[in-house]
């Protein structure tokens, strides 16, 4: 390997190791455990395997891949103060980082576009699962193909910063490399963020016009009004979660994009420490997403609490099925969409059973405001 991105630094080694220990090692372990746990929840919980959550699963896989392939070798190289692995591992390291990083932002863009499309669909229309899988295939296909170009002579993967990580050669003066880096910034960072910004601006503009949720006197009219309102409320909650994810992603990858632009322009402000800091923040993006799932998404929190109780007290099928149907009565009104697409409204909590049906429409004698409502598909 004849060329390196930046030269070896004379920074204090103790500060260097301390920085890596705090900002890489522990968050890397947390990212691996958290993303693996989120993926297990997706696989083992049927209620989470919705079309929108399939895209979130793609995001979780990319974060798990980022944590598993980037952080361990980064820590080892940090304490070695050099690239300790074979030369070919630098190529694999840079390729994996590019693929998982690109798949992450592309997944967020697809999720935003899908959320926006939901608000324009009629209540009876739905997006086929094949379309969702097609979008996921496009995300990973584009990421793999685009990041494979350095293997065929378009740019290359070389060590950067303190020689402890590898990325594409963004300081090369070669015209082909500069064109590739410029297109990577546009296609893998700018364009997805524009899509995300437009989609979420549209979502909040439409939701701002949404009227208050009300239950009308006619049973059929109540189903239509409440269902449409609750679908929009559910999309609002999920959109807030994704906005938090996008903000965390931008805070992580924007410094790295700035470092790449500084390298392309030959700016003297690009020091080894700047390159190190931007790379660390970029790889730490895998930590934020599962944390936001757990603390910002109500449905994930409920599933996590339920799984924790099952694992801590001992799980049995009888108790699990009984806990699904037996609920303590509470205050206010709650609504659930039944398995047969029927809606039953009662005081207190509602049970999910085939006996619940239109016969209970007497509870809609007077208009009432729904205090706490949830929708399940």
From TrEMBL:
Topology term for the membrane: Multi-pass membrane protein
GO molecular function, one term: photoreceptor activity
Organism for this UniProt entry: Amphibalanus amphitrite (Striped barnacle)
One GO term (biological process): visual perception
Main subcellular location of this protein, as a coarse class: membrane
Protein name: Opsin-1
Keyword Iron-sulfur belongs to the record: no
Keyword field contains Membrane: yes
